[in-house]
Design brief:
The chain is an alpha/beta fold. Helix content is 46%, strand content 8%.
């Protein structure tokens, strides 16, 4: 009888987030599993809004864990860590964590070069000439205010002396990012480091191919020192803005009839509100809406409704939400579309927001067969219990989990959608339904008990896979009647409830250190992040293909 060459035999596959075999306990007392340093850093980095408390972890402790992992891996494997940080600011869309990580990456490697790190890894010293430090700084600076942010972080922590890689990396970014429009938007008195300060400190040269940038840099310096009396003729956008600011208050209202003029002067909605010295009424919003970015539009739907913006203009906004290219360019997290829907008074936006949410979840696969989807609705996923920050638009982890779980359920061929905490219940999934409407069906639950939810809802003869969207901090859970078989353990592991032939995908929403199950092989895989990017790994794994880190994985 054949033991290995059987019809149901599948190739062993591996995913990048890997446990070490060492045990710990979850924050709710169940057996937990420790991950290697790269896996722990990845899951933490894709969920860490720097300085923000989580339910089980204070913001300071969380940030310390993050910086220690970055510093360790910057020395041990600079190529991998540089790849993570560049991806984190790009596809991962985590701004502050990437910026802090890049600064700590450089500091750790400079300390290692001086023998101060205590890590004893000569490899980092030998690889200093590879240019990692400068390239990492440049890679994480994607928005024109971020060179100043980097200087603010570095000098507040390590003093005003700037190492050459920091200066050069910021200078590279300044060449890419500084323009007339960015000067008008971001060079404000509220900033500790103005554009002129950045230029003074890093000595950025104008970029080749941008003949106007030398005039811009000099104007930024003059502006910082209060002697920008005349704008160079090459800076036409600044001249146009100066023309608008010279108008009388009465004349400014007349300019609302000329939205192209406002656009050519790089007028933002925030700047318009102060410039008008009057209310942001229907005329004001309709004049500036054509110049607004998609994210700004989504955040101001309530303002549009309260001002009485016309249905014709609203239709123009909706057309942009329905455009997959514009949604991709906005780089908005999927949960932000739910936030826009949740806070908009009028339903005239609803269909377009559903389309936008669908575009932002393009990587969520249409899974064949039957899928058990468990969505965590325990207290640690909610505000007052979990964390809700300005960065998240008051959208909780529970709601973010519901966005992913609902999208998976509506695209799966045969879904079983379950909300769980200490108890659990199934949610009906209508064929062809709306993700936004499905999210509204979820409630709140007590505790976190993953094993009991699997025990209650998993059917070996029915389900082809299990997907769990959670913070992983489960209770010990369901207790078997035959305790001796489990050596007197106070919990039943996921492997005792679902055979390894049934893949289990754990979507980690919070980046805590203990995992709820082993991962990386044997049908057990852990992903993380606030975008849909990692969902594309599920079909690859089920097709028998190993998966690497997202900045290394080829999906074509």
């Amino acid at each position: 009888m054949a033991r290995f060459n059987q019809r149901g035999t599948r190739p062993a596959v591996h995913s990048p987030v890997t446990t070490t075999g060492e045990r710990t306990v979850t924050h709710e007392g169940a057996t937990g599993h420790l991950r290697d340093a790269k896996s722990e850093l990845f899951l933490l980095s894709v969920s860490n809004f720097v300085g923000q408390d989580a339910f089980y972890e204070k913001g300071g402790d969380r940030d310390d864990r993050y910086t220690q992992l970055v510093r360790q891996l910057a020395v041990e494997d600079p190529e991998w860590t540089a790849g993570l940080l560049g991806w984190l600011r790009g596809e991962g869309n985590m701004r502050t964590a990437a910026l802090v990580g890049a600064a700590e990456f450089v500091k750790a490697r400079l300390d290692a070069d001086r023998g101060e790190s205590g890590l004893g890894n000569q490899m980092a010293i030998e690889q200093q000439d590879a240019g990692y430090n400068r390239r990492v700084i440049d890679a994480v600076l994607r928005r024109p205010d971020e060179p100043g942010e980097m200087l603010g972080y570095w000098t507040s922590k390590y003093g005003r002396r700037l190492p050459k890689p920091v200066k050069r990396g910021i200078a590279d970014a300044v060449q890419r990012l500084y323009s007339e429009r960015s000067l008008l938007k971001y060079d404000t008195d509220s900033k500790g480091y103005r554009f002129g300060d950045v230029l003074n400190l890093v000595h950025a040269a104008p970029a080749p191919g941008k003949p106007w940038q030398g005039d811009l840099f000099q104007h930024a310096l003059d502006r910082r020192h209060g002697n920008a009396d005349e704008i160079p003729s090459s800076l036409k956008t600044l001249i146009a803005r100066q023309g608008l600011t010279s108008l009388s208050v009465e004349g400014r209202r007349e300019m609302l009839r000329m939205p192209d003029t406002l656009h050519n002067a790089a007028m933002t909605w925030e700047a318009l509100a102060g410039w008008l010295q009057g209310p942001m009424d229907e005329a004001a919003w309709e004049a500036i809406i054509p110049s607004m970015g998609v994210m700004a539009l989504a955040r101001n739907l309530r303002n549009f409704d309260e001002a009485g913006v016309s249905d014709e203009v609203a239709a123009q906004v909706c057309a942009r939400f329905a455009d997959p290219e514009q949604v991709a360019k906005s780089r908005m997290f999927p949960f932000r579309w739910w936030a826009a829907y949740k806070h908009a008074p009028s339903l005239r936006w609803a269909h377009a927001l559903e389309q936008a949410l669908g575009h932002s979840l393009a990587n969520v696969p249409r899974l064949k067969g039957s899928t058990l989807i468990l969505v965590d609705r325990s207290p640690s996923m909610f505000p007052g219990y979990g964390f809700s920050t300005p960065n998240q638009s008051d959208i909780t982890l529970a709601e973010q989990a519901a966005v992913f779980g609902s999208a998976l359920a509506l695209r799966a061929a045969q879904p079983t959608l379950v909300e769980f905490g200490g108890s659990s219940k199934e949610i009906d999934v209508p064929k062809g339904g709306s993700v936004l409407k499905l999210i509204e069906k979820y409630g709140q639950n007590d505790g976190t008990d993953i094993p009991s939810a699997i025990k209650q809802h998993f059917d070996l003869l029915r389900h082809n896979r299990i997907i769990i969207v959670t913070d992983e901090q489960t209770r010990p859970g369901w207790l078997p009647s035959n305790m001796e078989r489990f050596g007197g353990m106070r919990e039943t592991a996921i492997d005792d409830l679902a055979p390894q032939t049934v893949p289990v995908y754990m979507w980690n929403m919070a980046g805590y250190k203990p995992g709820a199950m082993p991962s990386g092989a044997a049908g057990r895989h852990t992903f993380g992040g606030l975008t849909d990017a990692a969902f594309r790994l599920v079909p690859l794994l089920e097709a028998g293909r190993d998966c690497d880190w997202p900045w290394l994985t080829k999906t074509a």
